[in-house]
Fold this sequence. Notes:
- By secondary structure, the protein is mainly β.
- The protein contains 3 helices and 16 strands.
- Helix 1 (9-18) packs across helix 2.
Amino acid sequence: MTEPAFHDSATAAARAAAAGEQPDAGHVATARAGLAEPAMTPVPVRAEHADDGIYRTTVLQPGQARQLLPQDPGRRYRAQVIPVDAPVILCDSKDQASSPDNQFTATPQTVAAQGATASDPTTGTAVATIAAASLPAGTYSVTVQTYLDGTTPAASDDDNMGLHVGTTSVTHLNIPGIADNVVTSGPYLLTVNGAQSITVVVVTTVTSGAVYHAAITATPQYDVGPGYPQGLLLPVNVRIEVENSGLCWIVNPSQAAAVRVAVLTERYENAQPHSDG
Length: 277
């Protein structure tokens, strides 16, 4: 029986190899020529970075909520957000953005106060106070710096200052009875109701001639929780990057003034095509 001729060069080369023969160069070249090269299509990549983009300034009127990004994971977008005039709140949904908890006349910000007593302060004398008017309802991280001077303090001045929220004692402050020795205490996580001050007070009778000094710093905490707005409170001039799979709404919590917000919206470099089908 006559073996049929092989017109397929790739098959002929394979038959020769199976028989232990060396296929001729013509077969090999033809076999290689029969393989399709993968198509290489250049794909332009647009490098996107907030520092290279252009921010748009949007204005939110008092109490206004606005959608920042489309809530659609199929469209891969992100935004850089910077409050210009006052803090804003970022929310996950329209319902959250419309919450009455996000509408208040004052927005928590970092506040500080310092003070000193006269010589020989009496029990309960305020050394330094952050007034309630400066503390919108919320939770604050509070640090305190204290020291003594005047007539050389004595052992009776040890730990003789206390931290109060309103009229409630929070803790005694650990202060050695040594002149001009600055002590930093905290941070303490304190919640106020909007009508309470934060104060450092003299606990009991002091050494004759001693003078007490204190400085208080209260920094609002920005996560959701008791006493917090319904969302993420973003301070002035702090930049945050959000994605359209999460914080998509922005709210001006103030009922008194408009706020400007700088926003840069960009699409991911590896964004996937979106289909409505």
